[in-house]
Design goal:
CATH architecture of the largest domain: 4-Layer Sandwich
CATH superfamily of the largest domain: Ribonuclease Z/Hydroxyacylglutathione hydrolase-like
Strand order of the largest sheet: 1-2-7-8-9-10-11
CATH topology of the largest domain: Metallo-beta-lactamase, Chain A
Radius of gyration: 24 Å
Number of domains: 2
Strand content: 15-25%
Helix content: 25-40%
Shape: elongated
Bound molecules: MU-OXO-diiron
Number of strands: 22
Distance between the termini: 53 Å
Number of helices: 12
CATH class of the largest domain: Alpha Beta
Length: about 400
């Protein structure tokens, strides 16, 4: 059943307690997620977004318990990705003539996904639809995070339906930010930003400044995933502003993979060196093969610098390290320092290859990292410690 939110707005989404990965296997969702859909009732009735395809039937059955589907005057598709549009085909079989409001890019994406010629009603920033006592105002949010993404604002109720922006993969029965576990909420919010929105940070900054400059009253932000921001709703917009401007904390993340523990020992010695610099730097150490890559990326996002290590194998680097370098290249972090380290037995290409990978990923290389032949001995570990110490001094 739906949950009343405010002034005839009802949450009619789906909470997914089971999901543990998103975008195929690309994004871990250890806290589950929600597909938020909202029904807005005024003289006209509007459905904003739907749910992911496997829950389409359940979504529609629940919606039918709430109302006669034929009474829906408009469907707003803020974003065509299937976690929000997945129930559209089943819904449109029931109400085929209902207009779908979306951006021009939304028309292309929805047609590309479902190959259906529905009654699309494309909108641009500033377009409005009168629904009776209130208006829905549309705001294109191109590349936040797809070309079709859009938000809409409900006048009178002062609610921003922000779609993916400000969302979190966080399943909870308590619908609102003030009732949620704050630690999980902000960890999931920053993980979402770091892993999905980092490449679009410049656009995030521009769009948020643009929306804030409108000086619209915002009583509530209703994203399409996770909790609704009702207590100090703009706090998440201000966090996004902070995160979008090459965010960093006083933190260094060390990532390594190891075969016989020598590269691990190097990582730990570097960490001791950083700590010994006495600059209060938080050091996170991750084995790239034993930790979740999205959790690692979240810590890279928070860091001033990263150190990446691998032994040389087959004239290259271990696959988990290569995967993370590719992940970081795609996300395009800015204003972070980096260095490589690693062990070798004979050819010894790993440090050079990681350094090149970090350069490609846009990191500023801060010196030539240590290499250790076979098992790192006391002298090699001392070299790692000293490297960590000097590295920290540059931060
Ligand atoms: Fe939640 Fe971009 O879909």
């Amino acid at each position: 059943m739906g949950i009343p939110v405010k002034d005839g707005i009802m949450w009619v989404g789906k909470t997914d307690w089971e999901i543990r990965s998103f975008h195929g296997e690309e994004l871990s969702t250890f806290s589950g997620t929600t597909y938020n859909s909202y029904l807005v009732r005024d003289e006209k009735t509007v459905l904003i977004d739907t749910a992911w395809t496997p829950y389409a039937e359940e979504f529609i059955e629940n919606l039918k318990r709430e109302m006669d589907l034929k009474k829906i005057d408009y469907i707003v598709a803020n974003h065509a990705e299937m976690d929000h549009s997945g129930a559209l085909p089943a819904l449109m079989r029931e109400i085929p003539d209902t207009p779908i409001i979306c951006t021009e890019n939304g028309v292309k994406s929805l047609k590309g996904h479902y190959h259906a010629d529905w009654k699309f009603m494309p909108v641009k920033t500033g377009d409005k639809v009168n629904i009776g006592s209130r208006e829905l105002v549309f705001i294109e949010a191109r590349l936040l995070h797809w070309p079709d993404s859009m938000m809409c604002y409900l006048t009178g109720s002062n609610v921003l339906f922000s779609n993916d922006a400000f969302g979190q993969h966080y399943a909870t029965e308590t619908l609102y930010n003030d009732l949620a576990d704050q630690c999980t909420l902000f960890q999931e919010a920053v993980k979402y930003y770091a892993n999905i929105l980092t490449p679009y940070s410049k656009l995030v900054e521009q769009k948020i400044k643009e929306v804030l400059a409108l000086n619209l009253p915002v009583d509530m932000i209703c994203p399409s995933h996770g909790v609704i921001w009702r207590k100090d709703p703009l706090q998440i917009a201000n966090k996004y502003l902070e995160w979008s401007q090459d965010y960093q904390e006083n933190q260094v993340t060390i990532i390594y993979d190891t075969m016989w523990n020598s590269t691990r020992k190097m990582a730990e010695a570097i960490a001791r060196g950083i700590a010994a610099a006495g600059k209060g730097i938080e050091v996170k150490i991750y084995s790239s093969s034993r930790n979740d890559k999205n959790e690692i990326i979240t810590d890279v996002f928070k860091s001033k610098a990263v150190l990446v290590g691998s032994p040389t194998m087959n004239r290259g680097i271990l696959s988990s390290v290569a995967g993370l370098l590719e992940e970081m290249r795609g996300l395009g972090f800015k204003r972070k320092k980096a260095a490589a380290f690693g062990t070798y037995g004979w050819s010894g290409e790993s440090v050079k290859m990681i350094t090149e990978g970090l350069q490609r990923a846009g990191f500023e290389i801060a010196g030539e990292g240590p290499r250790a032949l076979w098992q790192a001995d006391d002298a090699a570990l001392k070299q790692c410690f000293d490297f960590g110490l000097e590295f920290a001094k540059q931060l």
